[in-house]
Design goal:
Number of domains: 1
Strand order of the largest sheet: 1-2
InterPro entries: SP1917_dom_sf, UCP033199
Number of helices: 7
CATH architecture: Orthogonal Bundle
Distance between the termini: 28 Å
Radius of gyration: 13 Å
Number of strands: 2
Pfam family, one: DUF2200
Structural class: mainly alpha
Protein name: DUF2200 domain-containing protein
Shape: globular
Length: about 120
């Protein structure tokens, strides 16, 4: 299943800061911490907590967010279905990257062990 150009454009225009509080709520509601969320975001993007806050304050879109990211070389190991799309089959790089982040947050909220989330073995 592939995404539509309209879907891809919509995702590109969403601001990271508008989604971030939902990530925090999701993981904290399931007993995980904001620090663990930041660990996951840093693993995927290379952004530390200070940079994450700068990006939120600057109201960057996902397009800008991922254009500045240094994507983890193991990001392609993130597989599965999120929001009805099989991540490894998404052809638009930005949409795939956003879904990588969604999947990692989902795994964190579901209680998966951090070494599994971070694809360490």
């Amino acid at each position: 299943m592939n995404t539509t150009p309209e879907h891809d454009e919509k995702i590109a225009k969403i601001t990271f800061g508008s989604v971030y509080p939902h990530y925090v709520t999701k993981v904290e509601k399931k007993g995980r911490t904001k620090e663990e969320l930041h660990q996951v975001i840093e693993w995927l993007t290379g952004f530390d907590e200070k940079k994450i806050q700068e990006l939120i304050t600057a109201k960057v879109t996902f397009s800008q967010f991922f254009s500045e990211a240094n994507l983890n070389r193991n990001a392609s190991l993130i597989k599965g279905v999120i929001c009805g799309y099989r991540i490894e089959d998404i052809e638009t790089p930005l949409t795939q990257q956003v879904r990588y982040l969604d999947k990692l947050v989902d795994e964190l909220a579901k209680g998966r062990k951090m070494e599994k989330i971070l694809r360490e073995g």
